[in-house]
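#structure-requests
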Amino acid sequence: MYHVPALLEETLEGLDIKPGGTYVDATFGGGGHSRAILSRLGADGRLLAFDQDEDVLPNVPDDPRFTFVRSNFKYLKNFLRYHGVEQVDGLLADLGVSSHHFDEAERGFSFRFDGELDMRMNRHAALTAAEVLNTYPAERLADVFYLYGELKNARRLAAAVVAARAREPFARIAPFVEVVKPFCGSDKEKKDLARVFQALRIEVNGELGALASLLRQSTEVLRPGGRLAVITYHSLEDRLVKNFIRSGNVEGRVEKDFYGNVLAPLRAVNNRVVVPADEEVERNPRARSAKLRVAVRVADGNNG
């Protein structure tokens, strides 16, 4: 199984799919969400899906209502325009890394295997995890570990990486893990290793910048009444999405009109963030950290 989609039914409900509508799956992956959306579309419906990873191509459905765009979703508006789409009725982004990526050693996403330190979603991109570890100065490495991994000992870890690479440049996962392990708590080694790998992955793929770009573009391509559904898996992503839905910007700066109404292009549909039920987590443990936020595009920019 390439990937089991998280919060599938909750996402479909949040998107409020109309049979003749036009929708975007910004993170195609294994195609689970896309196939479910197609099953709810009528003959006049349309779905466009984005993914920059060539490994997903075997998952692409043969359906005249479906258009696959092999690109990063940060180019959303450009490709929609190219395909003759000005506005859409719904936009989905599932920001989790596919199980396929974690389970393929040569992709370098998991500390469970001794593969190459790669971590590129787009394997034609230039920057790899090895490049980050071998060329970034200590201060910049510390920023990556602290900002994207939320590691309190980021400076000491960065210094250890710089010292180790002076002896031998990093190329594979196992030697890097040995450098990291002394900085992990004895009772939370796997959690700390996951945070280190998360930080490198975010840096290699520019994930937070791409997400911020997608959110900004979503308000331009969603028609009034259109839905935005975003599934996040860590606090950094969730904070950006929460801020954007609340205020219309990823920083969370709230602007109000003369009457005190918040000026923002989106309004939250679910007052509480949606998380998987215990039954789903039991079936799919990788869904345990998933959080779904859904918002609707308002017509007048006033979400109050």
